[in-house]
Amino acid sequence: MKFWGRTQSGGGLDFDRLDPAFRGFIDAQLALYGFDRKAFCRPIAPADEMFFKAILPNYEHDTNIAAFKYVESTVRTFDAYDQVVRQVFGGFGRLESVLDFASGYGRLTRALLQKVPKERIWVSDIYAEAVAWQARTFGVHAFPSAAAPDLVQHARTHDVVWVGSMFSHLPADLFHAWLGKLWSFVGPRGVLAFSVHDETLLPERESIDPSGLSYFRFSESGSLDHDIYGMSYVTQGFVGEAISRLPGTPRHKRFFKGLYENQDLYVVAGPEADISALRVASTPMGGIERAAHLTNGDVEFSGWAIERTPGEQITGVRVHVDGAAVGVATPEGERPDVLQHFPRSANPATGWRFRLSHALAPAGAQLRLELDSTSGLKGQIFARMPDAAALTYSGWSRRALKDQATGLS
């Protein structure tokens, strides 16, 4: 197990202490978004459950991969947020205020601060110490949440109320109660955006409850009561009916698998907001599965890619070494085996392959694959040449890539 990213005190995570290759992956990813690395990569707080009890264990406590995945998930979330802001408001400069609810220790805040002045950002979370930490660290406005919606005091309304992955953990009564509470924070021209687990993600051999919401008493949280926070799975009908109960019977749109790897994104419009043409695409995803050293010194890589947005498709996989474009990958047909990790995908997964000469694959060089899509979004895959630090999708390839021909790792 690798703990190179931990601070010497054993507290939070210091990005500057990561393995240099992974720091390079993070720096390159942030540069592609035009984000300031120093402002984004402030240490992760030691009490951040999202990182230390969810992301880090998912990567066998390899701090380097977990830190990169933390950043990767942040920019993918920002891709969705950015599409909503550009299409509904005309850009970040036109926002008066935003609220990130159930914000934890500010994963999304790190990205929002790149586009929105801190004076226009509000955050809230059930962990009072988390929002206090954000106020100290980022200078944003903060107020505590509570176990029950009627205990939360907040008089302001906002242009964007963003609730990433809270409704995917609520029992039915709290789902309705929190939806009503958060709707009260949305201004007339604003939107409420939240994500859910749809029924395709139900645990094996489980079926959806006749009510349209199935609730299970477990979660990644080690401290929240399972009466209020577990794992929930919903039908589109359940969510639509819940939204119809809101004052004003607002319009809404659902974006299938529109957030994170597999959650549906719902956007609910205030009375003055126009979401009729809103379209939110998912960031293309993919991974490297194999690197083989050939007898002539070349290195051959192969892997997979998927475009999850209905009506869109991946148009190419471009290969870069140390920032320079060196070629494109060759498509290799559909990969039905990948689809088990993307239930009811709108599009098939595809395979790809490419070869680099020894001269183009020096040890220690950074390999970056760019997945181009008709949606306009670009997915990124990073690896260290030629073998050790490949990163693939978390669902089934959590370990570092191993060279299939030589056993290098």
From TrEMBL:
Organism of this sequence: Phenylobacterium soli
Task: Recite the lineage of the species.
Answer: Bacteria, Pseudomonadati, Pseudomonadota, Alphaproteobacteria, Caulobacterales
Q: Which residues form the signal peptide?
A: none
Database matches in Pfam families: Methyltransf_25
Q: Which residues form the Methyltransferase domain?
A: 98-190
This chain belongs to the protein called Methyltransferase domain-containing protein
